[in-house]
Every structure is written in structure tokens, then in C-alpha cells.
Write a structure and sequence with these properties.
160 residues; alpha+beta; 5-stranded mixed sheet; 6 helices; 35% helix
Length: 160
Amino acid sequence: MASDIEIGELFGLEEVVAIYPLFRQVNTLDEASFRARLSAMCAQGNYRCIAAYMDGRMVGAAGFWIGTQLWCGKYVEADNVVVDVAARGMGIGAGLMAWIEAEGEREACALLRIAAVLSNVDARRFYARNGFFDDGILMAKALSRGAAAFPEYVARRDSD
């Protein structure tokens, strides 16, 4: 990672909302919906967010959760890791993941995990280069309220 990249945690909804311009590079969610979802996530109490800065400009961001499940115990899960298109290939994504991994170690987590969409080949290659491996499959089914947000899931359901 370039030595002039600084990574730090964002605190409070207003600081975390600042990641929206980066988020929009990879997602079409409108800002009002983004803010509403983020507000609900923060209210759950275990969502946290970090950002990477270069020359004072945000060039990367990643959310993460710390939780516990029966199958693995305490875990840390990265969520929406995004690097500015103009800054990719500079080690920023790896730096964000290393920060989350170190926090997981500090929090005594047994596992670091991330969900990646199967069709996002670039993301899956990135995670593989950073030590992740496929160890399962996340299955999804759009419910009635999710039909508009996840038309690809409805189309796959209806074609089966």
C-alpha cells in the first residue's frame, strides 16, 4: 500500500454517510435510501466503518460487523469494501482488509469473512489474493418487498 494512505474509523452516522460518493461508484441506491439503511445498520449497534484517505481525499471505505454465530463463534465480517476507481491497484483495498483483520484479532474473533456476489469476478479474485477462499455459498431469495430491489433474484426464481 502506498505510504501516503491513512486509514481510520468513522464515528456516528454523519461521518459514515460521507462514504456515499464512493458507494455510488458500485451501487445505484439513491442517497435517501442509503441514509435510511445506514441509520438502521448503525442502530443495531455492531456496524462500524473505516475510510482510507490519500492527500485528504477519501479513496476507499469498508464497513464491518462483529457478531457471534453457533457455527463459528465470534467473527468479523467486512461489508461493502469500495475503492475509488481512480485509485485502484494501489493497495488500498488490501489495506482496508488488513485493518479489519487486525481489529478482528484485537476483538478476539475466530474468523474474518466476506460475502461476494458470484458474478463479481474481480472482487472474488481480490479476496482470493488476500487469503480468502470459498467455503460455502450464500443463498438468497427475494421476498415480496425485495422484488423491486433484486429483480435478478426474482427472475432466477421464476425460471426454475
